[in-house]
Specification:
Blueprint lengths: L1 H33 L17 H5 L6 E9 L6 H14 L5 E9 L6 E2 L1 H11 L8 E8 L3 E2 L10 E3 L4 E4 L1 H6 L9 H16 L36 H7 L10 H9 L4
Parallel strand pairs: 1-2, 1-4, 3-5, 4-7
Antiparallel strand pairs: 6-7
């Protein structure tokens, strides 16, 4: 009789355990389905999803901090940084102002930088993040080339997340300041503005197009060869011809209209 009783207790315990497991699985499934679609970018530790409209409008943020972290000896010129700030002030609605902060770090000793390398440096050195009504963006100025360069064409800059960019300053030095080459300040300014243009959602990269002007053969770039968002602005193979006029190209009318329609000026 005791054996029968013990057997019944064991079956009861197993049944209760089964019910608990089913409940846990069902609860987990409902929680997952309730989560918002999409992943928060890894440059926002507070899990806020940053969109181009957050830069362009004041719906969430009224102030912007742009943090520039450079390897020592590869800092951008003050002129290029100032012109980038003017560019942002002319396009973004930020009544609280746009603040630029700069800092330098020792060389990580890389012969080239992979995207993983850049993200690790950002994780170790970035200090400004979205907080309250203040939005933040981050630039890294590198002392070596991009690891994904192919052949004779070298990448000058990348925008790799919703608020993070890198400029390969060593490459900028290589393709500026000499005979038939653009001035270093002009090339720096061009690359910085171009990459920030991607952060603002150009072209068809989070900011919708009013009219189709995307150069689909070159990703999220403008099909106007005279526009700042033309693909040649971030590759060494076309940059000399692109800047042959001696000045930084402006955004064309269609890119400006797209930004305005997404909350910008």
């Amino acid at each position: 009789m005791q054996k029968i009783h013990a057997l019944m207790e064991k079956k009861t315990d197993n049944y209760l355990l089964f019910i608990v497991l089913v409940f846990v699985l069902l609860f987990s499934a409902c929680t997952k389905e309730d989560e918002p679609v999409g992943e928060a970018p890894d440059d926002t530790p507070d899990n806020l999803i940053i969109k181009p409209n957050d830069f362009l409008s004041e719906s969430r943020y009224i102030k912007l901090v742009v943090e520039i972290t450079s390897v020592q000896g590869f800092e951008p010129s003050a002129a290029a940084v100032n012109q980038m700030k003017v560019f942002l002030e002319n396009r973004l609605n930020k009544s609280g102002g746009i603040i630029i902060i700069t800092n330098s770090i020792p060389s990580p000793g890389k012969s080239s930088y992979s995207l993983a390398d850049i993200k690790e440096i950002e994780e170790n050195y970035r200090t400004s993040f979205p907080e309250g009504k203040t939005l933040a963006a981050w630039f890294f100025f590198a002392d070596a080339d991009y690891a994904k360069n192919e052949g004779n064409s070298k990448v000058l800059g990348i925008a790799y997340s919703s608020a993070s960019m890198a400029v390969f300053e060593k490459t900028v030095h290589e393709f500026s300041g000499g005979f038939w080459k653009p001035a270093k300040e002009i090339l720096e300014e061009t690359v910085m503005k171009h990459e920030f243009g991607h952060i603002l959602g150009l072209v068809n990269n989070g900011t919708e197009m009013g009219k189709d002007h995307q150069d689909t053969s070159h990703g999220h770039h403008c099909n106007n060869e005279d526009c700042l968002m033309y693909y040649a602005a971030e590759h060494s193979s076309g940059i000399i011809d692109f800047l042959s006029g001696g000045s930084v190209p402006a955004l064309d009318a269609q890119c400006r209209e797209d930004l305005k329609n997404n909350g910008g000026k």
